[in-house]
Amino acid sequence: MLKKQLYLPTDIKICEFEHFKNHSCIVHGIFTRAGGTSTGAFDSLNIGINSGDELLAVANNRKVIIRKMGTKPFVFLNQVHRSGVKVLKKDDITISENFQLDTEAATADAIVTDMKDVFLVIQVADCQAVMLYDPEKKVIANIHSGWQGSVKNIIGKCVDKMIFEFGCEPENIMAGISPSLGPCCSEFVNYKDEIPENLWKYKIKNKDYFNFWNMSADQLMDKGVKKECIENMEICTKCNTDMFYSFRGEKTTGRFACVISMQ
Ligand SMILES: [Zn+2]
To answer: With 167 labelled, which of 54, 58, 177, 224 sits at a CA distance of 20 to 30 A?
Structure first.
């Protein structure tokens, strides 16, 4: 009789920001879509419970990520394209259950903490995950910023939270921008209705395309983050659907995991 086999992924791929690698207390990674259990449009490491995928497959994929990064609390958010920032503190109810495999811990689009050994998770498919780290105050954040988040400047609001809640100084903050929709593919034919006029300077000349990567970098620098402390992977998800999920490229698709923790 055949033994029931445990699923052990071998083809997981993780991208890292170069400047975080120099900080040994930071454990982070952008998972690609490879190495999971989902099939079809969700092939294969989909962690989005609202993507339309089978919940059991999503729960298994979340387990794969947790196993890969180490068994610590993982905090998944119910991301709603608004500008709510969750501040995670000791004894927070959201980490008391340890892992959330089929529910989200809190509704917010950014999360900040000074706690160690907790993984902050952002799930995306074209939207940016923006990771922040202040090595002086030992504070980390993970932000979900799609075009609606860009319009609401959730990045700036998250930096404000780091300043007011934890006394961070923006010039110490390091930032990383995940693979996301690049200026090559960010077409907004209805931009006059969707994007406020003060952001039209990011429109590419003679096209209805926008550079949200530059917008995010400016939102960070407007708060005082130094240009040299911002690292953008400059990988467009829609141009790379073999590696990443892309809502624009695929419509029905999964969400890939962007995780950061401090030891
Ligand atoms: Zn592209």
So the answer is: 177
In which band, very low, low, confident or very high, does the pLDDT at 5 lie, cut at 50, 70 and 90?
very low
Question: What is the distance of C-alpha 152 from the center of its chain?
Answer: 17
What is the signed CA dihedral for 230, 104, 123, 216, rounded to 10 degrees? -40
| CA 86 – ligand 1 centroid, Å | 31
Q: How far is the CA of 185 from the centre of ligand 1 (A)?
A: 4
Cα 238 to ligand 1 centre (Å)? 5
Distance 225 CA to ligand 1 centre (A): 26
Q: What is 15-262's CATH number, 3.60.140.10, 1.20.120.1630, 3.30.930.10, 3.10.560.10?
A: 3.60.140.10
Distance of CA 139 to the CA centre of its chain: 16
- Considering the chain, what percentage of its residues have pLDDT values greater than 90? 88
Residue type at 82 in one-letter notation: R
117-to-12, 106, 107, 186 alpha-carbon distances in Å? 22, 18, 21, 36
**Ligand 1 centroid to 233 CA: how many Å?**
13
* pTM given for the model: 0.95
